[in-house]
Amino acid sequence: MDKKTFKKLAKASAPPSPIGMDCVRAFLCGGTICLFAQLLNALYVALGASTKDAGTIATVTLVFIAILLTGIGVFDRIAKFAGAGTLVPITGFANAVAAPALDSRTEGLILGVGVKIFTVAGPVILYGCAAGTIYGVVLWIMTLLGYNPEVGIWAAS
């Protein structure tokens, strides 16, 4: 069977994807996660944290909840329903880091969990550091040319 015939046969036998409904579920679930994060943020501010600290604490709380739900097997069911709605917030990243580590725990703490936890986190950390370095160098060059980053304006010539 050639590729063209196989492709035609596969397309005919595959069920149609409900793209519209998938988008609605992703939007609603992702929005609900973000709403929950905002409520956490407001709660932490009400408990006396500064606005900056409340954001950090809310982020850590979301990561903890996502890892906990991954560990007890609930996050996968939520993600199956919500689709991309769980990927966009930080909860998706927490799940993507925790899931491979949990799957490989039988291989040991070092060669299993320790190695697998960086299959997703490693590239994110690497490219995040590289992007931060490039941004820093560009900003440094701009300040040499007269840009004031604190005010966000260029100095008059």
Keywords:
mainly alpha, 157 residues, 75% helix, two-stranded antiparallel sheet
Task: Explain how this protein is built.
By secondary structure, this protein is mostly helical. The chain is 75% helix and 3% strand. The protein has a two-stranded antiparallel ribbon. α2 crosses α3 (51-71), α5 runs antiparallel to α6 (109-116) and α5 packs antiparallel against α7. The mean pLDDT is 87.
* Overall number of strands: 2
Kindly name the structural category: mainly alpha
| Largest sheet strand order | 1-2
**Portion in beta strands:** under 5%
Helix content: over 70%
N-C termini distance: 71 Å
Task: List unreliable stretches of 5+ residues.
Answer: none
The succession of helices and strands, N to C, reads HHHHHHHEE
Write the SSE topology:
Elements: H1 3-13, H2 19-46, H3 51-71, H4 75-82, H5 90-103, H6 109-116, H7 118-144, E1 147-148, E2 153-154
Helix pairs in contact: 2-3, 3-5, 5-6, 5-7
Short description:
The chain has 157 residues and is mainly alpha-helical. It has 7 helices and 2 strands. A two-stranded antiparallel ribbon has the order 1-2.
